[in-house]
Write a structure and sequence with these properties.
Keywords: Signal. This protein is of the alpha/beta class and 686 residues long. The protein is built from 22 helices and 16 strands. Among the domains are: 133 residues, HUPs (Rossmann fold, 3-Layer(aba) Sandwich); 134 residues, no CATH class.
């Protein structure tokens, strides 16, 4: 931990450089038929009108034969802390653990990134009302940081959700507007007494919900209903777990608790009709027009063109130019110079050479190595996601189905990094909530039982795809639980901890200070986390700066996915954080390996860095500068994993001595909290 003294040092450096800112839960499901949808990466154009009208459809209920599952505990609750004026005494639980009362009349079911009916606690809660208005809002401000591929998946998922609701005699009201501007007015118009929506972990969505809460506080009761409007939030926990504050910080300790995983909720067999008087349900916006409106929002930031240009330049494609300055004669730009321009696009993982390719090369045969480029998304929304999951789990089985064969081809490509296929294939489905984590676990374990005579083998999973799915989903759930606990712990110390999704991965950071002040981004060293700068945050904030400190992927309480970690992975994470979170050039300060990372960022994307502060940096920066060099990671050695475990064991057992050496003048800084937090992060890696 660098103390306030270092904060003053950084502050003085910055001055010189600059002289020339929830609550909820629920349930389970059954076996669902597969449909013919495949993984795809092309957008299908839809001709539709961009509408802000709200409205209705006929009520025709269709019953389905669904297996019954035991529901977990009640997971819906009022937001009585954020909007105290809206809180009312809760009614007792009924049915599936959903609170109900005789006054339940009309509710709005606000979909965000939970675009499914399967395993949806909000849908179960809405079923207790007489009339329900399902709503999705295409908000350009919310989507301003989304990729084109994710926006394509969004339109596909919303279309599928609307189709499923229409089969139940309801409909999905589709709006294109600012969420906080239309949601409260819509509730007023139909006399809704409740808005049902998902509890959020990610900071962007938390801000959206908060803006809606603020707009609701300003509204008077509807003339149709005299009852104050309430915001009910839900979540779908994977585990039957106690409150976040009581869970262990250590992943191994958490696993030893042996918490029961909860079954998914079944899709509804029927659903309440729409409120009377609605005549138009709206239509999906024209994709081109909507992306243009998103781009218009981005352009309101005076730094957007600079940020956009930097983010569009993959670090690897810039390295040949950076490592050979003489090649830029006659003003040729790095993008023009790069011989990889047509193939080197941003990739969130660096793919290792597959074992089969290695064998062929050793035999002297030519192999054309394919690369996984860009993002994949699954067509068909929730229906397609479930179908692709069935195909994914059955990867080792022969099949005559063309859709499964297409899935298999994608898996072969993505498994060049062993174990990476699930997150890459289902990235958009998990981001949009077209499939739930509980559904993934349920289907994976059911498949295992089917293969093993109705039992789970004590020797592990029978296919690597099942292991990938179960392991990745449990890790995602763990980091969400840890985020909620981190928020409570940080608030007790006067900090606010936020979660940011980078390429689908959970990244933790903290921010404080003057929103109008110069932006500063602090990057920690090896084995550390954002709390490394906890005193510097306060010191710099008190001097008028807007200060951010993030935890790099693979460290602290940020996610530790199965990927190849390189200097470019961390550098591109820092770059994207500047573009998507800070949204303007920053003063960049880094310690140890964080110093090396920030140097790479400043070297490759100098337009994002107003000045650079290095604190005991790693790497040979000056003297003997010879330019940036980068070597792609090679194939993993068989002894790499045992050696890494040995190293982790050494770090765990020797962390107190190693940390004391880092604080020769203030050994008291190596307190119990620091030791436990460092060991906690290392234990998860092991």
């Amino acid at each position: 931990m660098v103390g306030l003294t270092m904060a003053a040092t950084i502050a003085s450096s910055l001055q010189a450089a600059l002289s020339g800112a929830g609550q909820v839960r629920l349930k389970p499901i059954e076996q669902v038929q597969c449909y013919d949808f495949i993984a795809c990466s092309h957008w299908k154009t839809r001709a539709s009108n961009s509408a802000e009208s709200l409205h209705q459809c006929e009520n025709l209920s269709v019953s389905m034969n669904l297996a019954e599952f035991r529901a977990p505990k009640n997971s819906l609750r009022r937001d009585g802390q954020s909007v105290k004026s809206y809180a009312s005494p809760r009614a007792g639980p009924v049915g599936n653990g959903v609170s109900a009362s005789s006054s339940k009349d009309t509710a709005i079911l606000w979909f965000k990134h939970d675009l499914r009916l399967d395993d949806h606690p909000g849908v179960a809660a809405a079923s207790a009302y007489k009339r329900v208005l399902p709503v999705y809002i295409f908000d350009p401000y919310v989507c301003a940081g989304w990729s084109k591929e994710l926006l394509e998946s969004l339109c596909d998922a919303v279309s599928d959700l609307r189709k499923e609701l229409r089969l139940l005699g309801s409909d999905l009201i589709v709006l294109t507007a600012r969420t906080e501007h239309v949601l409260s007015r819509l509730a007023q118009k139909i006399g809704a007494t409740s808005i049902i929506t998902e509890e959020e972990v990610e900071s962007t969505w938390q801000r959206t919900v908060h803006s809606v809460l603020e707009s609701l506080e300003k509204e008077e009761p509807s003339s149709i209903s005299e009852t104050k409007l309430e915001l009910d939030q839900w979540s779908a926990p994977l585990y039957d777990t106690p409150e976040s504050a009581s869970i262990p910080d250590n992943y191994q300790a958490f696993q030893r608790i042996g918490l029961r995983t909860l079954a998914p909720l079944p899709s509804p067999a029927k659903f309440p009709g729409l409120p009377e008087g609605l005549t138009d349900t709206g239509s999906l916006p024209d994709f081109k027009e909507f992306t243009e409106s998103v781009e218009a929002i981005r352009r309101k930031n005076p730094w957007w063109e600079t940020l956009k240009a930097a983010q569009s330049q993959p670090g690897e494609s810039l390295l040949p130019q950076a490592s050979n300055p003489s090649s830029s004669k006659n003003g040729v730009s790095s993008a023009e110079y790069s011989p990889f321009k047509s193939v080197l696009k941003w990739r969130d993982e660096y793919i290792l050479e597959g074992p089969q390719a290695s064998l062929l090369k050793k035999q002297g045969l030519d192999v054309e190595e394919e690369e996984v480029i860009g993002e994949y998304f699954i067509k068909g929304g929730a229906t397609g996601a479930l179908n692709v999951l069935q195909g994914y789990l059955r990867f080792l089985e022969p099949t005559n189905r063309d859709d499964y064969k297409a899935v298999y081809e994608h898996i072969w490509e993505m498994e060049k990094k062993p174990g990476a296929s699930f997150r890459k294939l289902f990235a958009s489905s998990l981001a949009l909530g077209t499939i739930s984590r509980r559904r993934v676990i349920f289907e994976a374990l059911q498949y295992e039982r089917d293969r093993n005579g109705g039992r789970l083998s004590p020797f592990g999973f029978s296919t690597f795809t099942v292991g990938n799915a179960v392991g990745d989903v449990k890790a995602m759930e763990w980091f969400d639980l840890l985020q909620r606990k981190s928020e409570l712990q940080a608030s007790e110390k006067g900090f606010h901890v936020s979660a940011w999704r980078w390429k689908g991965y959970h990244i933790q950071y903290s921010a404080m200070g003057n929103e109008d002040g110069p932006a500063v981004l602090l990057v920690h060293g090896f084995g550390a986390f954002w709390e490394h700068y906890r005193d510097n945050l306060r010191g710099l904030a008190n001097k008028g700066y807007r200060v951010y400190a993030l935890t790099l992927i693979g460290f602290g309480r940020s996610e530790k996915p199965n990927m190849t970690y390189t200097e470019l992975v961390w550098a591109e994470l820092v770059r994207d954080f500047i573009v998507e979170v800070v949204k303007q050039p920053v003063v960049l300060a880094g310690n140890s390996i964080g110093g090396f990372t920030t140097t790479v960022v400043a070297g490759l994307w100098p337009s994002l860095v107003s000045s650079l502060v290095l604190l005991n940096t790693a790497g040979k920066v000056i003297p003997d500068y010879k330019g940036l060099t980068y070597q792609k990671p090679g194939e993993s050695s068989p002894i790499a994993k045992p050696l890494s475990k040995l190293l982790l064991f050494y770090l765990q057992s020797s962390s107190d001595k190693l940390l004391t050496r880092c604080y020769p003048k203030q050994p008291s800084r190596v307190d119990k909290w620091l030791l436990e937090e460092v060991k906690r992060g290392v234990s998860f890696c092991g």
